[in-house]
């Protein structure tokens, strides 16, 4: 009798349990607006929304956002703290690593800005190395030949390194440097939110850098493969989810793929 009761309880417990637990895929991300915003301990942005969408269209994996540092993301990958990162570019120090690059229909860029004045800005933007600069630590910029080592940058440039795009903008407004570098999509978002900034800053006529964005996946991951991730991302593109996610975080009409030149 006792054995029968135990067997019954075991059957009830098993019937109420899922057949299997989803495998966790850790997705690294650092403040890089509009893709990742940090609000105190919370995170938001295009990356977080895309992770949620990927979790909704499949039930094999649970993608989980893992906050990382922009300056230590390579070390974090090497230590297996995450296996996937979205809205990255393989030129940003990832060379020689066990990675697959899956392109996304997104591109962005960095642009130099300065405070408005009566002076001619032609020489200013053509020779930024002659002026005091403000840039985001860990980012790769064309003016510095994509070198992002803080010691190198401080040795070769008069540069203030800050934590994110908003800090770069605010440092310029406080006149802590002559030129600030800022992600173009983020700047367009801020200008739409605060149109009076248009009267305070001047934009360079061309980008400092322009880059394609995509997903970087650990090539040797035992279960999640490139073809699966590509299939899901293509599905989200085809059903309009990627466009809807983008429109939640950037000004209406701002393209996901920026034009080759501002001129």
Automatic annotation (TrEMBL):
<feature type="signal peptide">
    <location>
        <begin position="1"/>
        <end position="21"/>
    </location>
</feature>
<comment type="similarity">
    <text>Belongs to the bacterial solute-binding protein 3 family.</text>
</comment>
<protein>
    <submittedName>
        <fullName>Substrate-binding periplasmic protein</fullName>
    </submittedName>
</protein>
<keyword id="KW-0732">Signal</keyword>
């Amino acid at each position: 009798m006792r054995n029968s009761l135990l067997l019954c309880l075991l059957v009830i417990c098993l019937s109420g349990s899922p057949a299997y637990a989803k495998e966790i895929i850790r997705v690294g991300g650092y403040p890089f607006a509009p893709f990742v915003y940090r609000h105190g301990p919370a995170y938001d942005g295009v990356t977080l929304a895309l992770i949620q969408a990927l979790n909704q269209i499949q039930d094999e994996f649970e993608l989980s956002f893992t906050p990382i540092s922009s300056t230590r993301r390579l070390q974090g990958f090497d230590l297996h703290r995450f296996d996937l990162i979205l809205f990255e570019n393989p030129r940003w120090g990832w060379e020689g690593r066990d990675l697959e690059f899956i392109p996304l229909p997104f591109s962005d860029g960095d642009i130099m800005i300065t405070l408005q004045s009566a002076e001619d800005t032609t020489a200013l933007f053509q020779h930024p190395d002659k002026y005091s600069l403000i840039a985001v630590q860990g980012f790769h910029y064309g003016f510095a030949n994509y070198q992002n080592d803080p010691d190198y940058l401080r040795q070769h440039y008069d540069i203030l390194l800050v934590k994110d795009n908003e800090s770069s903008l605010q440092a310029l407004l406080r006149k802590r440097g002559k030129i600030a570098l800022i992600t173009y999509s983020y700047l367009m978002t801020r200008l739409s939110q605060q149109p009076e900034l248009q009267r305070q800053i001047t934009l360079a006529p061309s980008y400092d850098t322009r880059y394609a964005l995509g997903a970087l996946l650990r090539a040797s991951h035992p279960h999640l493969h490139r073809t699966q991730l590509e299939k899901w991302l293509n599905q989200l593109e085809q059903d309009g989810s990627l466009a809807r996610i983008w429109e939640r975080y950037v000004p209406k009409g701002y393209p996901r793929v920026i034009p080759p030149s501002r001129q």
